[in-house]
Each structure stands twice: as C-alpha cells, then as structure tokens.
Amino acid sequence: MSRIALTAGDSAGIGPDLCLSAATQTRDFELVCIADRDCLEARAGLLGSAVRLHEYTAGKPVTRAAGELSVLHVPLAVTAQPGKLDVRNAAQVLRLIDRAADGCLSGEFAAMVTAPVQKSIINEAGIAFTGHTEYLAARLGAPLPVMMLVAGELRVALATTHLPLRAVSDTLSQALLLQVLQVLHTSLREQWNIPAPHIAVCGLNPHAGEGGHLGDEEIRVISPALAQARAAGIDARGPYPADTLFVPRNLVGVDAVLAMYHDQGLPVLKHAGFGDAVNVTLGLPVIRTSVDHGTALPLAGTGKADTGSLHAAIGLAARLAALRTAATSGH
Known about the structure:
single chain, 18% strand
C-alpha cells in the first residue's frame, strides 16, 4: 500500500487548512501529514473542523478513515498566526521538506506532496531559496529537475523556471533543451506509462521568431536541439508559435508541451484548470507533486481556501506511486 507524505508548507498560509481538508475523505492509501501538530489543532479550531489527529510512528499502520489524520510532528519555533509570516518559522518549513524527501529516499514514503511555501520569508531568514523544485533537486542530488504542471490531460513542462525574463534567452542552450527533453520523455514513459510520448515544443519569440525576423533563438538553439532529440529517439516537434500551439485542435495527440519559460506555458494551463492543476517535479529520484498556487495568506484560517488542487496533487501522487509499484513488480 502506498504511504504518501504531505508537508504543511508555511503554517501562516493555507497549508494547514489544506492538510485538514485532505483528511476529510476516505483514502485507499496511507497519508501522513508532516506538520506542527499544535498548529493543526489550532487551525482546526478556527475552521470548526472535527478532524481527529493521530501521532505517526514509522512502521505502524496509518489511518485511512475520513475525518482522521496521522501527523508526523515537526515543531514550529513560535506559534503560527494565520496570515502573518514570521521569519523565525522559516527553517521549520525546510525541515518539513527534508523529512518528506528523506522518507521517500528510504522507502518509508512512496511519494511526497507539498503545500505552498513563501519564498520571500525563507530568503529573509538568510536561507537562499528559489523554490521547492530547485531545493529538492539540490537535496536529492538531481542534476536537472524539470517543472511540469498537469490539468486533466494537459501537461506543460518548462525549459526554465524561476528566472527573470531577460535571463531566459541567455540560459537556453542546445544542451539544456536536450537534457530537459530527455527528462520529460523518460518521465512520460516511466511515470505515466506512455510508451511513445509526443512532445510539442514552443518557440521563444512571437511567431516562433518568424524566420529570424523576430529573434533567432529558434534557429540557433531550439531547432538544432529538437533535431538532436529526434536522433536520440525522442518524438519532439516544433518550435511552434506559443499563441497557436495551445489551440485545442493543435494539441490532439500531444502528450506534453514544453514551454521555454514560466509565464509562457503556465497561464494557459492555469486558465484551463486553476484550482485543480498539479505541479509535478520531474527528474527526481522520488515522486513529488504540489499545488498550483501560493500560500494565500489572507485566506488562512477563514475556510475560504480552494482545496481542489491539493486533492488533485494527492490523487496524482498516489496514482504515480501505484504505477511505479506495478512497473517494478512486473504487473
């Protein structure tokens, strides 16, 4: 049976609310929330939640009943106030991630799901942090993590992630794109069980550069990288103008889209499925999914947070874990 780790994220945000919501449904897998238990109890009081919390002990059964949640307690430095960030609690956020990642590596957990964190407060604590994706890659020794968001059958991966727009062109290279395509191709085959994935690739510039008149990255970088990928057995096509690639008829038969930068692909995906989309980190030695939104500080403790993305992230993590188990067992 899959045992999924769920980190609470920044406890000043809606992370604790999401964790409590996750416990309201009966599960066919075991869910362990990694959080400050006192914070969860306090948030449950604010929300009027009747969820019962149980202490998690490694190696012992975990409740799967609706209305109950097993908690692996990682204490906060100071009591969290909903909606009010506190730099003193920043290090605890990372300890949650570390514990989940270590548990996945050891086999204690089959996958990890992460509630949102506030990057700014972690950096204010003097800890260099650009996001879950990069942090997990460094901790787990993954050379190239790839961020992909999933909304239903639409999958959008990113060639670059959290970069200023002016840095994107300088960062793109044939070698980088080939590596990203290899990670994406392998993940679609091994995690999604798609035997021969078809990947559609966006250009960087308007109209995919229009033959070099609107930028030459398509000619110098993207097209040669795609040729190398196809020579390596990867079905990657493009570069296509991003403004027309996402037209539904152009996505027929496409298993994933590779966008060149964060705000090229993700606005389309979030428009299609915001609140139900899932962030997946490819290229890690563990399964990791997350919500498609931030900490939503004004909504913390109000009961107004949309929990759909968190439920979708947990469901996808459980499905990917089941597929991995089936693949390794030969079924």
